[in-house]
């Protein structure tokens, strides 16, 4: 695993059961639907792009992939995301969802090229030939996109003016702020043939967007975070997991009553089983699943604080840092206070701000992301870059009081199942 010290955990092995898509006019919250039992699955995060506004030779624009078992969800999709995916071990065909934090170009310019790569959007018909992709079924979307107001209009306009057609459908759900229009698409352009007509406009309730997606395995909620434009952070929460099971507590009872051993699977899921002699066996109590907070650009993430409490992993931006004696670009008249003030004025955070927020929400682990082009992303092979990135991590650790990891492109980390509480 390409990672600095920390986050050396190995996730549990398993397969996630995906809930089939139902192409109908429905709410995103599926909490009322039955949740079949399922086992734990691997959770990995791959950082595809870790740059801020300007990419560099070692960092591309923002994008990261969250792998849940066999499924992949992207969070932001900056320029060159598709190229980075091709350099990784991830399969583009496994991408199910794309979550956009805000519509600045360095976070969204890669969406349409990626969709074209996944949904067969290359080329076109010439000289009056028929374009079969005009007959795509829009009621069976392959990819869901979530983002703030303007996400749907952006994708629609790009497809319109680049004359792009898809062989498969997509759908866009927008997270609307109280000041945003509750209905409409925020554009006069008609839907592309491949855009599903049942994209939701999801309004806040209590200042946040809870359970914008939920199935039997995970749920996703979002909260507003302050930047220079409307921006959101996302919290991915795994459903409760089966508790640790001691077979010695159950097998003698099963043998005594000639009960088939297959009921062990029911007990493992926390269910109760009544034996032929009236004895009732109770499975182990279920334990909490993993919880991950992925923030977009921000100088104040307090709007997502309650949703993000006690996360196992917080991914937080750290665009600028004051590194006197380490960063040759440090201005002589700069101080920690002046750099923080300037960074905040542009809607961003310093490592210290990220560390303080991580401590406030009791995050178990913190990874810094979204770095200025001044900070090279090859610290795994360049000693000078490592000194600089270690210093940035140290600034955050000084506030967080725990070890901090700095992300670099194509770095992957596993998120472990939390230990059982005693």
CATH hierarchy class name of the largest domain: Alpha Beta
The total beta strand count reads 17
Number of helices: 10
CATH architecture label of the largest domain: 4-Layer Sandwich
Return the CATH topology of the largest domain.
Answer: Metallo-beta-lactamase, Chain A
Report the major sheet.
8 strands, mixed
CATH 4th-level superfamily of the largest domain: Ribonuclease Z/Hydroxyacylglutathione hydrolase-like
> What are the secondary-structure elements, in order, as H or E?
EEEHEHHEHEEEEEHHEEEHEHHEHEE
Q: Over all CA atoms, what is the radius of gyration?
A: 23 Å
Number of domains in the coordinates?
Answer: 2
Report helical residue fraction: 10-25%
General form: globular
How would you classify the quaternary structure?
Answer: single chain
Beta fraction: 15-25%
Order of strands, widest sheet: 7-6-5-4-3-2-1-17
Topology:
Blueprint: E1 43-49, E2 63-68, E3 71-77, H1 81-87, E4 95-99, H2 105-108, H3 111-118, E5 141-148, H4 151-161, E6 169-176, E7 201-203, E8 209-214, E9 218-225, E10 231-238, H5 251-256, H6 263-268, E11 272-274, E12 280-282, E13 291-295, H7 305-308, E14 313-317, H8 336-345, H9 351-360, E15 366-369, H10 383-400, E16 405-406, E17 411-414
Parallel strand pairs: 3-4, 4-5, 5-6, 6-7, 13-14, 14-15, 15-16
Antiparallel strand pairs: 1-2, 1-17, 2-3, 8-9, 9-10, 10-13, 11-12
How would you describe what is shown here?
- Its cofactor is Zn(2+).
- The protein has 422 residues and is of the alpha/beta class.
- It has 2 domains: 43-123 and 137-240 and 288-407, Ribonuclease Z/Hydroxyacylglutathione hydrolase-like (Metallo-beta-lactamase, Chain A); 247-282, no CATH class.
- It is 20% helix and 22% strand.
- Strands 7-6-5-4-3-2-1-17 form an 8-stranded mixed β-sheet.
- Strand 3, helix 1 (81-87) and strand 4 form a beta-alpha-beta unit.
- Residues 1-38 have low confidence and may be disordered.
């Amino acid at each position: 695993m390409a990672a600095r010290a920390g986050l050396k955990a190995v996730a549990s092995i398993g397969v996630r059961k995906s809930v089939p898509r139902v192409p109908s006019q429905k709410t995103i919250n599926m909490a009322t639907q039955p949740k079949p039992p399922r086992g734990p699955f691997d959770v990995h995060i791959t950082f595809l792009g870790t740059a801020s506004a300007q990419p560099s030779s070692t960092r591309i624009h923002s994008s990261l992939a969250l792998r849940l078992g066999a499924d992949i969800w992207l969070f932001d999709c900056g320029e060159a995301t598709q190229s980075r995916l091709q350099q990784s071990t991830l399969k583009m065909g496994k991408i199910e969802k794309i979550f956009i934090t805000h519509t600045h170009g360095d976070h969204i310019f890669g969406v349409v090229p990626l969709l074209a790569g996944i949904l067969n959007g290359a080329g076109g018909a010439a000289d009056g030939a028929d374009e079969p992709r005009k007959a795509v079924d829009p009621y069976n979307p392959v990819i869901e996109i979530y983002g703030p107001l303007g996400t749907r209009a952006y994708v629609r306009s790009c497809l319109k003016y680049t004359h792009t057609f898809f062989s498969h459908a997509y759908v866009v759900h927008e997270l609307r702020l109280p000041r945003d229009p509750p209905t409409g698409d925020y554009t006069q352009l008609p839907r592309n043939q491949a855009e599903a007509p049942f994209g939701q406009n999801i309004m806040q309730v209590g200042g946040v967007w809870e359970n914008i997606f939920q199935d039997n395995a995970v749920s996703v909620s979002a909260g507003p975070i302050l930047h220079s434009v409307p921006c959101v952070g996302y919290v991915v929460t795994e459903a409760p997991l089966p508790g640790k099971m001691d077979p010695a507590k159950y097998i003698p009872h099963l043998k005594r009553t000639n009960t088939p051993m297959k009921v062990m699977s029911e007990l493992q899921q926390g269910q109760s089983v009544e034996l032929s002699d009236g004895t009732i066996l109770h499975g182990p109590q279920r334990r909490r699943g993993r919880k991950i907070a992925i923030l977009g650009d921000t100088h104040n993430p307090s709007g997502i604080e309650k949703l993000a409490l006690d996360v196992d992993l917080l991914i937080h931006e750290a665009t600028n840092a004051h590194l006197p004696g380490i960063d040759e670009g440090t201005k002589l008249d700069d101080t920690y206070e002046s750099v923080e003030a300037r960074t905040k004025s542009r809607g961003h955070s310093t490592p210290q701000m990220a560390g303080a927020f991580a401590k406030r929400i009791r995050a178990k682990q913190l990874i810094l992301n979204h770095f200025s082009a001044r900070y090279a992303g090859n610290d795994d092979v360049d000693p000078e870059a490592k000194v600089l990135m270690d210093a940035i991590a140290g600034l955050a650790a000084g506030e967080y009081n725990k070890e901090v990891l700095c992300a670099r492109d194509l770095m992957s980390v596993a998120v472990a199942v939390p230990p059982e509480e005693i």
